[in-house]
Design a protein that fits this description.
The protein is mainly α. It has one domain: Four Helix Bundle (Hemerythrin (Met), subunit A). 64% of the residues lie in helices and 3% in strands. It has a two-stranded antiparallel sheet. Helix 2 crosses helix 5 and helix 3 runs antiparallel to helix 4. The relative contact order is 0.17. The model has no long low-confidence stretch (mean pLDDT 91).
Length: 192
């Protein structure tokens, strides 16, 4: 098996394990804890796309749905691997930083806090930005054309989802969120 693909598989397992605690916490959100939860396709569609992306990455590691690995593509693969590894762990850091505020749904909990530390200090939606970069990096590392397609679909979906979250946070945190918004970027530091 290709060494880059072995590293990708090991990282999939490691980050999956690191995200399990956050996912459990997100699934434990009961109706009693929720103050507001908008009804929108952006609740379920993005997690489904992310699941398909994970499956595409996994099968790409076994060279299914990939271009042929030739010497000329090695620099692209190494750059993709670096992007994939770095941003998969920044994404884990993002989930961990959210703590009890983490949810797979777009919600405001009754005891919701505005998180402005860790990666949230510079960008408001690091988990979505990282998901896009993880998928682009993974597609480059494995030369997966299937994963590339999912990454392209994710970009507008995550921008819409993040915009909806911004509106919800603005509604519930008012001036506090407005001040935070001025000091942080949407997906990129200090932009948006």
């Amino acid at each position: 098996m290709d060494p880059i693909n072995i590293i990708v598989l090991i990282n999939v397992i490691a980050t999956f394990g690191a995200n399990v605690t956050g996912a459990k916490r997100g699934l434990k959100s009961t109706v009693a804890e929720v103050k507001e939860k908008p009804k929108t396709f952006l609740q379920k569609f993005p997690p489904v796309i992310s699941t398909f992306s994970l499956i595409a990455l996994f099968v790409a590691a076994f060279q299914i749905g990939t271009l042929d690995y030739v010497e000329e593509y090695n620099i692209i693969r190494y750059i993709g691997l670096a992007v994939y590894l770095i941003f998969s762990w920044v994404q884990v850091w993002s989930f961990k930083t959210l703590g009890d505020n983490y949810s797979q749904d777009i919600i405001i909990k009754k005891k919701h806090e505005l998180i402005t530390k860790g990666p949230f200090k510079v960008i408001r939606h690091p988990q979505y930005f990282c998901q896009i970069l993880v998928d682009i990096g993974g597609a480059m590392a494995t030369l997966s054309y299937i994963l590339s397609g999912f990454a392209l679909i994710e970009i507008p979906i995550y921008i819409m989802r993040a915009s909806m979250e911004d509106k919800l946070l603005s509604k519930h945190f008012g001036d506090k969120f407005a001040h935070y918004k001025k000091k942080s970027g949407f997906f990129l530091p200090f932009i948006g």
